[in-house]
Structures are given as structure tokens and as C-alpha cells.
Amino acid sequence: KYGYAAKGASVVLYRDSALRKHQFYVYTDWSGGIYGSPAVTGTRPGGAIAAAWTALQYFGREGYEAKARQCLEVVEKIRVAVEDLPDVYILGQPDMTILALASDSVDIYEVGDELGLKGWYLDRQQHP
Fold first, then answer.
1. What is the b/e burial string over 82-96, where b = at least 16 CB atoms within 10 angstroms of the residue's CB?
2. Which ranges constitute the DSSP H helices of the chain?
3. In the predicted model, is pLDDT for residue 24 greater than 70?
4. Using alpha carbons only, how large is the chain's radius of gyration in Å?
5. Host H or E run for residue 91
6. β-strand 35-37 against 25-27: which pairing, if any?
7. SS3 call for 101
8. Cβ distance 93 to 107 under 8 Å?
9. Predicted pLDDT at 58
10. What three-state secondary structure class fits 26?
């Protein structure tokens, strides 16, 4: 998500290779025979891979670590600010950079609309 590259260049890393076997997609009715792939899309777009490589070269490890720290600091600021709101709260105890806002007294989608007007981008989910 924070790789500064186009979608399609992401990876999934597994600590245990036994889990990876559940990721594969196999299509048995393809005209060319059985088709197996580690992803539903089969292949990855070259442009997205080139963009990811370029971003890695540009930012380097230190740059990515600085961006990760910055993201975590922003989430902490949001968490503290939301604690002061009487009608909005955070679901769960997020320890990364994704958090879910909720409310029992105001329409959370209207809150999202207002934040959107102020330049915030929010992913709205019915059941976060």
C-alpha cells in the first residue's frame, strides 16, 4: 500500500511456506490445458513492476522506514484527536496504519463526506 507504485506490483510474504499453497489459482478448463498461477490475474503488468523498482531505488530502505514512521505518527495523532470527539470512536486497538471509525449517534458516512470535503480520502466499508 505504501510502496509508492501502481497497483499490481504488490507481494504477499509468508513466514511459513505451507500457507502459500492456499494462494494458487488453477483453471482446468482453459483451451491450452491446465493453467496454474500464484494469482488470479496470472501475470503482472510490466509498468507496475518497473514503477515499484524505480520507487525502491529512489526511496531506499531509509526512505521507506522514514515514510513508515511518518504514517504511524499520523495514525497516532488521529487516534488522539478521535478520543476527544464525543460521538466518534475507533473500532479495536489498531497497531498499524489502518483504523476504522464508528459512531452510535451520528451517521458515520456523513462524517466521511465532511472529511472528504476537507481533502481526506477514506475507504468506506459496511462491516469493517
1. eeeeeebebeeeeee
2. 17-20, 46-83, 108-117
3. yes
4. 20
5. strand 89-91
6. antiparallel
7. strand
8. no
9. 94
10. strand
Count of H-run helices and E-run strands, the chain: 3, 4
Residue boundaries of the structural domains of the chain: 1-61
The candidate with the shortest Cα–Cα distance to 92, out of 75, 109, 105, 106, is: 75
Summarize pLDDT for 47-82 with one digit per residue, the tens. Answer: 888 888 999 999 999 999 999 899 999 999 999 999
Enumerate residues 6+ apart whose C-beta is below 8 A from 1.
Answer: 10
Amino acid at 57: Q
The percent helix, strand, coil of the chain (3-state, each to 5) is 40, 10, 50
In the block, cell 503482472 appears at 44
Grid cell, residue 71, equals: 504514517
CA dist., res. 27 & res. 36, Å (int)? 6
